Amino acid sequence: MIVSFTINDESRTIDVLPMARLLDVLREQCHLTGTKEGCGEGECGACTVILDGQIVNSCLVPVAQVNGSSITTIEGVAQQDQLHAVQQAFIDHGGAQCGICTPGMVLAAVDLLNRNPQPSESEIRNGLAGNLCRCTGYMKIFESVVRAYQK
Amino acid sequence: MRAFVPNYELTTPSSLADALALLNGEPGVWKPFAGGTDLMVLLEAGRLPHRHYVNIWGLPELRGIEATDTHVTLGALTTYTDVQSHSILQSEFPMLCQAASETGGLAIQNRGTLGGNIVNASPAADSPPALLAYDAEIELISTAGSRWLPYRGFHTGYKQMLIAPHELLARIRMPRNTRNATHYYRKIGTRKAQAISKVCLAALAKLDHDQIGDVKIALGSVAPVVVRCVQTEVALRGQEPDSATIKSACAMLAKEISPIDDIRSTADYRLQVAKNLLTDFLLTLRS
User: Fold this and answer.
1) Contacts of A111 in chain B (CB under 8 A)
2) What is the pLDDT of residue A151?
3) Which of A123, A151, B43, B198 would bridge with B265, disulfide CB 3.0–4.6 Å?
């Protein structure tokens, strides 16, 4: 089937298998490999993207369901050469270790701050609860999000 | 092993009528596909035996939450995120909001639907205990029309339910009679988010001069289906929530549930925790 969607403010029309995972279409057909695959079953959040203003696990979304949608991946978070405050905070405060969870963590944090610019401690924990870090660097990630909105 | 994606069909109907016509035209061939949070997991694991799906995600008739004086009615595609942000649900059906907030993480809550949670028919699902305790009814529609039935009794056995292949779960409604009730929902899992429950209890009760009046008790993950514990409710009605009542209610509860050993927990643990949760609920009524 042919699907059209906007990805990082760019319109795309591509030929896909309807049940293909959005994750695979992003990585293999759109060559946007910033979105990572972790568990492939909606547990880890590594494949998080923002779909029509809400975070989703792109491994659980069949591409037929994004026809006409707007998607933001990690490649679309920075504006030109200007990193998003969350990305800069992850660099400055050690929020990234091996990096596999980082794109998902950053998108979950960006989404959280879009909805709630001054989140409480528990709101940050809740916002990131669906994203796992195998390096277990949770406190640095948490601190990075706090610093991002304090800026 | 991963599924071979070209083997699967996911067709997007242009209207609800088209979706129902497809389900009716070849009964059993097509199945509805909503938010995908259960089906896509099976697909990736190579354990999705059915091949032909109707994509109902974009059908507006299946969305939205409406309130009348007597009922709140939710479209089957209402997501867990939709549930949590609705003011009437927050004030009158807090157990449903809590269940929604404890299902998966935010990305799952944005995509998972109440209708999907019902027809996926997992005994460990989080919203069904709340829906059972709130006496929910469900609407099944087809090209032949619509029928409402009580949610209680809909699941007849493990993954078995009273829906025909040509029918679609369209709406869920709950009577607005929960004012002045104590609501108690507690899910026990390995961690706060992203966990599947070991035991889950949803209960509400109204007190009448220190005595328990109307009381509803539902449990998940302790039987082949999510269960209402009617005998326990009968045993509690008219009693004060004192130690003797708690003891006899726990004994009755043990007869009404049939927990098993599985990957997430053991029968012994589940039985003990179910009794603990019932006790905690009844102690809440005292304060």
Assistant:
1) 106
2) 74
3) B198
Provide mean pLDDT across the span B100-122: 97
Question: Residue A95 is encoded by which pair of tokens?
Answer: 């929020």
When CB atoms are compared, the residue of A59, A62, A129 closest to B105 is: A129
Q: Count other C-beta atoms under 10 Å from residue B105's C-beta.
A: 25
B chain contacts of residue A54, beta-carbon cutoff 8 Å: 81, 110
Closest listed residue to residue A133, CA positions, set A39, A50, A2:
A39
Question: Is-contact B28 B165, C-beta < 8 A?
Answer: yes
- B49 Cβ neighbours under 8 A, 6+ residues apart: none
For residue A69, name the pLDDT band (cuts at 50, 70, 90).
Answer: very high
Give per-residue pLDDT as tens, A107-143: 999 999 999 999 999 999 999 999 999 999 999 999 9
Tokens of B67: 């309130």
- Residues in chain A whose Cβ is within 8 Å of chain B: 17-21, 40-43, 45, 48, 54-57, 59-62, 64-65, 67, 108, 111, 126-127, 129-132
For the segment B60-89, what is each residue's pLDDT rounded down to a tens digit?
Answer: 999 999 999 999 999 999 999 999 999 999
Query: B81 to chain A nearest CA, in Å?
Result: 10
Helix (H, G, I), strand (E, B) or coil at A119: coil
DSSP codes, B215-260? EEEEEESSSSS-EE-HHHHHHHTT---SHHHHHHHHHHHHHH----
The CATH label, of 3.90.1280.20, 3.20.20.140, 3.40.50.2000, 3.30.390.50, for the domain at B182-286 is 3.30.390.50
Q: What is the pTM of this model?
A: 0.97
Instruction: List chain B residues with CB under 8 Å of A20.
Output: 5
- At B220-258, the pLDDT tens digits run 999 999 999 999 999 999 999 999 999 999 999 999 999
Domain A2-76 CATH (choose: 3.10.20.30, 1.25.40.10, 1.20.120.1200, 3.40.190.10): 3.10.20.30
CA distance B185 to B264: 20
pLDDT tens digits, residue range B133-182? 999 999 999 999 999 999 999 999 999 999 999 999 999 999 999 989 99
Which tokens in the block code for residue A62?
A: 């069949």
Q: Which residues of B touch A (CB under 8 A)?
A: 5-6, 8-12, 33, 35-37, 40-41, 43-45, 53, 55, 57-58, 81, 104-108, 110-111, 192-194
